[in-house]
Amino acid sequence: MAETNLKLSKAKIRQHKRDLRKLKKNKDLSLQQMVDQYFSGTVITRQILGRFIKEKEYVPTSHEARTVLDLYRDPNPYRVLPKYFERSPEALAFYKHQGDLIRQASAAARQQFKEAKG
What we know:
Order of helices and strands: HHHHH
Number of strands: 0
Oligomer: single chain
């Protein structure tokens, strides 16, 4: 059920395709050798790997294959923060104080710029 919320990362897909092509070319490996060395004991087969490397738009449909190839987006670290209305009063006061400090520093910098400008 948790796998339905996972989204694919287009950047990761492009990067992994490029890396696997370079690895295959530079080390002069066959697809079967790559599968044996890097993906042994997983659901990745020679056919899946070959199609993933060669076809521009192909992405495996199997959740296990996508996980092994690391094609899902990394989780957003800021998602773990509670929503604004769920935060404690202390946290809200802290965020408000930090915002005030930033606004004061911005106003001081703006004032300094105006004075220097003339």
